[in-house]
Amino acid sequence: MALANVLQSESVDFSNYGRKCRGFSSSLYETELGLESVGGDNLSFAVRTACSDGDGPERKIQFLHGTTTLAFKFQHGVIVAVDSRATAGAYIASQTVKKVIEINPYLLGTMAGGAADCSFWERLLARQCRVYELRNKERISVAAASKLLANMVYQYKGMGLSMGTMVCGWDKTGPGLYYVDSEGNRVCGDLFAVGSGSMYAYGIVDSGLKQKDLTVEEACDLGCRAIYQATYRDAYSGGQVNLYHVHSEGWNRVSQSDVLMLHQQYQNLTDQ
Amino acid sequence: MFATQVYGDNGKMKEYHYTGPVEHRFSPYSFNGGTVLAVAGEDFAIVASDTRLSEGYSIHSRDSPKCYKLTDTTVIGCSGFHGDCLTLTKIIDARLKMYKHSNNKCMTSGAIAAMLSTILYGRRFFPYYVYNIIGGLDEEGKGAVYSFDPVGSYQRDTYKAGGSASAMLQPLLDNQIGFKNMEGVQHLPLSQEKAVQLVKDVFISAAERDVYTGDALRICIVTKDGIKEETVPLRKD
């Protein structure tokens, strides 16, 4: 298992205690992970998954969730735009989260859902991509990278991981954009918006993409505007808009704009 | 001293009224309160915590600080479930020693932060109920603060408050250190004296309004000359 393999070699093995005590109700996962259920003893430390009733210990501990992220392909590559708010329940834990994870100089991954889940698995993906490069003496394709990620999290399906990510890059076949999530979905597409504010972002991008042949600047403005509108209406999105552009030479960070500044900017535009 | 479902979200007591016999599930977690704060300056870092250890309506100890020294340039503050705090700090100490023996050098603050992230994520399905904040100096000697969530998501900040009174402290820090949402204000860099005074003021305010924060404040100031500790009394009620 990816998780056990990565951590076992590096960490002192305190994990045996935890493993014995974890009695998962679904036996399918028990055998896969090599866990034994707590025999004889009626105490069960079964950790409920996020979808079950709210009194389990997982609900007391609030993980960082959040967000609006979007990515779309256009003539000159892929635009990736994200907000930067992380919430723990109703508390805004941070307004400066980096939701675009730089896997390598030509692949980007976005973060939506559980912050730790996204950053951990995408960091692991970066390692796998590097190993691929070393073994095969060529860069990994976006399709292969997204497949690696999808397969890694599929092993944990149903156990409560929360991850909705877009793998964006440029490979031999041109611009690549895949949506991968912890439910096991992996879809190729031209436009995706993920997160609590995604519906608002879709509205803006869909109307802006109607006119074909956007220039790089127009596409960047569209991405920025879409995230801004999502932060305007979605309480769980906000902070800053981080914008990246992926092209044939790799990705580069276009801008980071505070939503308050954008608000004044767009306000001035409408007033004029 | 088993924590039962009498404690609702966040460890705060639910309203007590008799509803008939209720089956109580054993919970492996308990909420022991406490607040931690870290501030990064130009060439220093401050990690401060209160020293109250509580559970439900009782106070177990008035002298249980939540800052732990890791290396000469790094201090960690852990609040949440005290049992997990102790185990986690022991694990980190062990890993630091292992690193020192294998690599013949001390771990840097950034490396400790990255390592803690994977340690926490290793228990993704039975998390350490600990809110961590690491404060220290980076390789260039500048102050660095890394804040974590219980499963290992982390980022570098300039200042961060964690624990029971974090929601009260963070807005105050946003205003005084971050100058957030203030117009026409000169952004002055934070001096060490001003930062220490701010930390003291902020904890005094937290002790006024949060039941789990109080008794005393332990401040660890990390500079290139080492780690200095200061203790300041707070409200004991």
Automatic annotation (TrEMBL), chain A:
GO terms for molecular function: threonine-type endopeptidase activity. It comes from the Eukaryota. One of its GO terms (biological process) is proteolysis involved in protein catabolic process. InterPro entries: Ntn_hydrolases_N, Pept_T1A_subB, Proteasome_bsu_CS, Proteasome_sua/b, Proteasome_suB-type. Keywords: Cytoplasm, Hydrolase, Nucleus, Protease, Proteasome, Threonine protease, Zymogen. CDD domains: proteasome_beta_type_5. It is found in: Cytoplasm; Nucleus. The active site is at 67 (nucleophile). Its main location: cytoplasm. Gene3D superfamilies: Glutamine Phosphoribosylpyrophosphate, subunit 1, domain 1. It catalyses: Cleavage of peptide bonds with very broad specificity. One of its GO terms (cellular component) is nucleoplasm. The 26S proteasome consists of a 20S proteasome core and two 19S regulatory subunits. The 20S proteasome core is a barrel-shaped complex made of 28 subunits that are arranged in four stacked rings. The two outer rings are each formed by seven alpha subunits, and the two inner rings are formed by seven beta subunits. The proteolytic activity is exerted by three beta-subunits PSMB5, PSMB6 and PSMB7. Directly interacts with POMP. Interacts with ABCB1 and TAP1. The proteasome is a multicatalytic proteinase complex which is characterized by its ability to cleave peptides with Arg, Phe, Tyr, Leu, and Glu adjacent to the leaving group at neutral or slightly basic pH. The proteasome has an ATP-dependent proteolytic activity. This subunit is involved in antigen processing to generate class I binding peptides. Component of the proteasome, a multicatalytic proteinase complex which is characterized by its ability to cleave peptides with Arg, Phe, Tyr, Leu, and Glu adjacent to the leaving group at neutral or slightly basic pH. The proteasome has an ATP-dependent proteolytic activity. PANTHER family: METALLOPROTEASE TLDD, PROTEASOME SUBUNIT BETA. Belongs to the peptidase T1B family. This is Proteasome subunit beta.
UniProtKB/TrEMBL annotation, chain B:
Its main location: cytoplasm. GO terms for biological process: proteolysis involved in protein catabolic process. Keywords: Cytoplasm, Nucleus, Proteasome. It holds the Pfam family Proteasome. PROSITE patterns: PROTEASOME_BETA_1 (PS00854), PROTEASOME_BETA_2 (PS51476). It is found in: Cytoplasm; Nucleus. GO terms for cellular component: cytoplasm; nucleus; proteasome core complex. Transmembrane segments: none annotated. Component of the proteasome, a multicatalytic proteinase complex which is characterized by its ability to cleave peptides with Arg, Phe, Tyr, Leu, and Glu adjacent to the leaving group at neutral or slightly basic pH. The proteasome has an ATP-dependent proteolytic activity. Belongs to the peptidase T1B family. Component of the proteasome complex. This is Proteasome subunit beta. It comes from Oncorhynchus mykiss. The gene is PSB11.
